[in-house]
Amino acid sequence: MNLKQKALEIAGIYSKNSKIDAVMLAGSVSRGWHDKYSDIELNLFWAERITDEDRKQPIEKVEGNLLSYHPYEEEEWSESYITNGMKIEVSSFLTSTVENVIRDVVERYDTDYGKQCIVTAVKTGIGLFGENKIKAMREKVDSYPVQLYEKMIIANLDFGNQWNNRNGLLQRKDWVMLYDVINTIQRKLFGILFGLNHMYIQHPQFKWMQNTIDQMNIKPKRLVEQMENVLLDTPTNGLRELETLIKEVLLLVERHMPHLPLEEHKQLIYYAK
Description:
The chain is α+β, with helices and mostly antiparallel strands and 273 residues long. The chain has helices spanning 3-14, 27-31, 52-61, 95-106, 113-124, 131-141, 146-156, 166-172, 175-196, 209-214, 223-232, 235-256, 266-272, and strands at residues 20-26, 40-46, 65-73, 76-83, 86-94, 126-129. A hairpin with a 2-residue loop joins strand 3 (65-73) and strand 4 (76-83).
């Protein structure tokens, strides 16, 4: 049985609960990116708050071995388990919570990465139950808001003061701090590129980087190679590669958003030279 078939089988069990509005296959499997390391990610949308019995009964029915089990936090219930050698990751939300997140992102232009990941799941996920409910949500996220595009770019143009200290960190060989700064800047550059390409954030740590970059039309020509060099070359060469990448991304911003007041970020551009 392949991953999609197993997901459909498990969705059938969850769908018997009268509280559930929809079951959606999310993650790499829904996008056709999965490999031998992938698991099944299910997003469950509930009409009302759920109990431990609601969560655990389906696991018992598939004779699953529980790996993790988290209480309701940050408006989500989550658990993971293994059944028949397959790992299942479950994220449960109140349907009203997901609808509020969608409004935050597409109407209030919230740049929060976690919220955008939920929106991405709605947009790219595969409905296994409650397709009409999922379709209604999907219609709301289908068009990427222009205002979000601008806010994503402006928010991520602020690199913070630590970036200005990078050469000192390099000379002192403060590798942990240096690579923390480097990773922060890489995430910010990705945030800018997602905005430029009118794409919602797909993972807070930009998992499946190669696949994500392949979806982008606006990007530096050597982006994949540059991202690898930043982390896999020597610290000095990696840092210089990152500075080059910053300049290339800023040029893309200037080209595609000529109205953006980049003069407000002259300090950033100066330190990138």
